[in-house]
Amino acid sequence: MQLDYLCEVLLGQGNCPCVNNVRGPIIGGPFTLVDMENHTVTERNLLGNWILLYFGYTSSPDVGPEQLQMMAKATNILESRHNRKILPVFVTLDPQRDTPSHLRAYLKEFESRIVGLTGPVSAIRQMAQEYRAYFKKVEEEGDDYLVECSHNMYLMNPNMEVVRCFGVEYNADELSEAIVKEVKGTSTDKSYKVL
């Protein structure tokens, strides 16, 4: 099933409209993927962490690398200026090309703490659907292709509930400030566990 809507939040408009404030998030759900060391990772492995989750792909020509740079910078700002640790997680939308070893080499260029996840096409498709992350393979000349995607980042609380989503209009300082506002009022734990 292809999703025809995106969770977009304009700068300064507050919480993600995809979050139901009465009964918790309406986006998110269980998943089973593999990390860069080929270990199985599920949503249960991430419990107890504040997470900044981004769906993208390593062959992205422009927006993807910009978003990963912003994620890395915001993660560093949160730790150095605010003494807050957020676990950055990158889920590929192109598992055919983004193997665990390829993800490891690619993400190392941005920030060694980013956890890269991949898996079978069906598992990626299911997780993207659960998280309302739009993506579509766009054929190019020959065997080459691009992947259109929504480029949103999700802030997840330690219970793996989406509390906020961010679009591409944020810079690293704005992103880190918005995350601090969310984390400050709800968490006294300033660290994350390592997978």
From TrEMBL:
- GO CC field: mitochondrion
Which CDD domains is this protein grouped with? SCO
Top-level taxonomic group: Eukaryota
Q: InterPro entries this protein is in?
A: SCO1/SenC (IPR003782), Thioredoxin-like_sf (IPR036249)
A GO BP entry is: mitochondrial respiratory chain complex IV assembly
Tell me which family the UniProt entry assigns to this protein: Belongs to the SCO1/2 family.
Name-wise, this protein is: Protein SCO1 homolog 2 mitochondrial isoform X2
